[in-house]
Amino acid sequence: MDTTVAVETADTIAINHLSSENFASPALSDFFLLYIEPKFTHMNNLAITAPIAGCMRWGIWGAGFTTEQYSDMIDACLDAGIFAFDHADIYGDYTTEAEFGKALQGKSEKRQKMQLITKCGIQMKTPNRPQHTIKSYNTTAAHIIQSAEHSLQNLQTDYLDLLLIHRPDPLLHPEAVAEAVTQLQQTGKIISFGVSNFLPTETSMLKKWVPIAYNQIECSLLMRDAFTNGTLSHCIEHKIIPMAWAPLGGGIISEETHPRYRAIHACTSELAAKYQTGENQILLAWLLRHPSGILPVVGTTKLERLLEAKEAQSIQLEREDWFRLLEAAAGEEVA
User: Fold this and answer.
1) pTM (2 decimals)?
2) pLDDT (tens digit per residue) in 260-304
3) CA dist 103 to 71, 96, 156, 157, 335, Å?
4) Catalytic, out of 70, 91, 214, 275
5) Helix and strand element counts for the chain (H, E)
6) Catalytic residue at 35?
């Protein structure tokens, strides 16, 4: 049975051609297991696909890719069916976007296959921005528009698929953000808008002025605040798609010195054998099992990590296995 949901409002999710055979149970709670080739679209037809390649460490904050290495990594991702790339204006002290864009210069056919995400709102103190005398936030309309336009130039594109406010700003004025977003969308410079690291109350406030399609949050088996502080429930309620940065715990999960390492490793190892996959795939499948439709942002410079994330989409953890992982990470059974 195929089900198609029509798109009517800017914050309505359309789920294209979901087949009931994809799900282990026809129960309503399992209807929302959208991690098998998820297709989320809004009225602007944006469909951010998982996994998302996080580019923060592709430049001077990490691997220091050459233009050729950027190009090779982009090509490998596209060939593997990984189309979304996550940036922020500040990455690499404001240099990574431009390095990435240089690899796209004169290659419009690549851009047409890609989904470019970037973030703005943080002002870093760096030699590349001598006018910044202290690290701060800036969510004025002028700054958001200027940041988006700089990102367009850096990324060698005339539109961004998704623009996010990087972190909550105590001085954020919702009307200013709405003014900037409206102008950027009306001029075709951004397709969709969202936030990053916002709590439910912060998102609800801003959402009264401007539609919010995504919230990018830290979320993993180790960092489970979003499961208990209302963030993921809020996403479901308001049809906001959560993106998870550091979905593998920022590598901490694999550190033997972590107090829960032995329990987590024992559990993921057992489940990897059961599902005939790898431990990283199990960790990502744990996130993908959540009914909010979490999209992992895998920040890596290694293609194999992204391929593991791609494979994780085909794994449907049984409900009890999900809770086994939760108990291994928490150190206690649920109440």
Assistant:
1) 0.86
2) 889 999 999 999 999 999 999 999 999 999 999 999 999 999 999
3) 5, 11, 9, 12, 52
4) 91
5) 14, 14
6) no
